[in-house]
Amino acid sequence: MSLSSRHLLGLQNVPKEDLQLILDTATTFKEVLERPIKKVPTLQGKTIVNLFYENSTRTRISFELAEKRLSADSINFSVSTSSVKKGETFKDTIRNIEAMKVDMIVVRHAAAGVPYFLTQISNSNVINAGDGTHEHPTQGLLDMYSIREKIGKLEGLRVCIVGDIAHSRVALSNIYGLKTMGAEVSVCGPATMIPQRIEELGIKVYHNIDSAISENDILNVLRIQLERKAREYFPSIREYTKYFGITRERLDKAGKNTLILHPGPINRGVEISSEVADGNDQIILQQVTNGVAVRMAVLYLLGTQN
Amino acid sequence: MKTVLKNLVLINPKQKLNRKASLIIEDGIIKKIGNLSGDDLKNANVIEFNEAVCSPGFFDMHVHLREPGREDKETIKTGCNAAAAGGFTGVACMPNTQPAIDSAEIVQLIKDKAKDHLVDVYPIGAVTVERKGELLSPMAELYEAGVVGFSDDGTAVKTARILRTAIEYSKMFNLPIIEHCEDETLSNGAMNEGFNSTQLGLPPLPSVSEDLIVSRDILMAEYLKGKIHIAHISTKNSVELVRNAKAKGIKITAEATPHHFTLTDDTLKTYDTNLKMSPPLRSNEDLQAILNGLADGTIDCIASDHAPHSIEEKEVEFEDAPNGIIGLETQLGLALSELYHKKVLTLEQIIEKLSINPRVILNLPVPSIEVGEPANLTIFHPNEVWTVDVSKFKSKSKNTPFNKRLLNGRPVAVINNKKMYYKDKFSEI
């Protein structure tokens, strides 16, 4: 069994069989992570570059760990500014890296479309580790994996993504992946944080968090950016928390169990209360563990293709 | 020197001219129109045109020639060569050069650099000093130096207050203010806002950003009885606003670019920066409205917004790439393919929008195909299929999304200023 594509740029148009294969393979690697010696020789001799044009400690560490556990040689290349400011164009940077004979590139960039552009100028397998407000496919996969692990299936589940959908790269990957696997997907947030015409992706849009909670089995709560720029989209953090924050009282009011996911890092007391973040309905840290297994699966499946 | 242009179809809607004939040109002047006698061919350079269409020379009222300042992208000479190769005998160049065209000296510099060329170059002056939107440029001096309009193109005139002053002042010269309609507080996106921007995750730029400034400008033109020309109109609502304004008798004119009547934001899935322009490619609904606007005369002319950029500037992240594509050498082919062959416009209407109307808007004389008149002509084949090959372009830049596209209809020759451009060469005529 192998994936139908050489790259993982996003979950849009990824066939169900591929998603299934990645999730199943991740189960195998999760077992590896439980062993005393957490390492397999699968990608020995492969060189992987983690090309991070944006700060992201968690995603980078997760990929790096996945690479090391598969015995690949990995190199971290972090650039905090875009090519325009740096002087060397993105294309030249890639050509230089390629000239050092690498096999795979994991890329994170603040601009949407960069992973696609990378496939046009490079021969390596490209894995998108988050591009602009476009996609973050391994996050989508690890969310799906975590739900499946907890509940045993994805089909027929009702999943609502809560928060700043318009400025999220996690939302689209979750929407595409979950829908392909047969889940019902919705989003909930202030109207200013819902991108135009998103309902045309076949999802429901909520602006009332209580309805979203009562009509869904799972909430995937996104991080609210606290910087001034993001603050243009809502009057105050206090108001956001009041109307969209996930609290114990809100969950209890629905009178049923709701599974809580959060891609991290969490803002306690903003989009999620500490009580919920540390409570029994959440799988936030399992998501982090599963992230390594899922990334191992993706790296393995792409790295061992012919 | 005598040149015989054999077997043309002369079309000039302004003269109600549409007939087959040959032309004799001597020292740049039309000497004879009609059937040829034996004597006519003596000692003459005879060129057979096989019933290609001959019209008054085409005029592109919206190009960026980049000189002075960014001669690495285009110069007045390479831009003029591109215009000639694209079938144009005249262009009006936008003032967002470095320095901007906001002084008589820069106007003179451009005119000097262009003076021996086949293609006439008419500078457009900046509305405000350095295009900053603060102080009025020396409009009278610019007018005297030869500008044909005023624009802060690249942005709209910044405030209603400075726009008011500019309209009132420019009325003294009867020149239009040419507006790049975009509300800067809404225009920090990289592509049209819609279902595509949502899927691609690119920062969205809403069409209402254009509509707001078009509305402002129409109201201002009405209030002050001034002349405003809407550059590169791109939205359905803006077309409707201009249509209604014209019906009320407000002095509003508009142009559309070939990319806005050919492409939509559906093409952006490849994140190709040669599809990034300002205003951005819009939805199919907007494109249809532009076609309707061209057909019913709401949109007066076709202009390329020829915007050369270097490869290294364009080969970057989509959000960081500069806006704009080159258009001089694909414009006629696209107009014929998308408008004439798809029955949106007749050949007469194409000629009005590419030759007559832009000159009328800028108060320039429209060339006549008449004995005794200087020959200012474009000759084109409406039915010749060709493939765009950017490596053959005369423009110094190559940023076009139309490379390798099959087009139906192409320029054959242009004649102006006692010069002819034919088969890749300039010659005296």
Subunit organisation of the chains: heterodimer
Mean pLDDT of chain B: 97
Question: How does the major sheet of chain B shape up?
Answer: 8 strands, mixed
Q: Order of strands across the biggest sheet of chain A?
A: 7-6-5-8-9
DSSP E strands of chain B, number: 18
Folded structure, characterized:
The complex is a heterodimer of chains A (306) and B (429). Helix content of chain A is 41%, strand content 15%. With 306 residues, chain A is an alpha/beta fold. Chain A folds into two domains: 16-134 and 290-303, Rossmann fold; 137-287, 3-Layer(aba) Sandwich (Rossmann fold), CATH 3.40.50.1370. In chain A, the strands form two sheets. Chain A has a five-stranded parallel β-sheet. In chain A, strands 2-1-3-4 form a four-stranded parallel β-sheet, sandwiched between helices. Chain B has 429 residues and is an alpha/beta fold. Chain B has one domain (58-361): TIM Barrel. Chain B has twelve helices and 18 strands. An eight-stranded mixed β-sheet of chain B has the order 3-2-1-4-15-16-17-18. A five-stranded parallel β-sheet of chain B has the order 8-9-12-13-14. In chain B, helix 4 crosses helix 6, helix 6 packs parallel to helix 7 (236-247) and helix 7 runs parallel beside helix 9 (284-296). Chain B is globular and about 70 Å long. At the A-B interface, helix 5 of A face helix 5 of B.
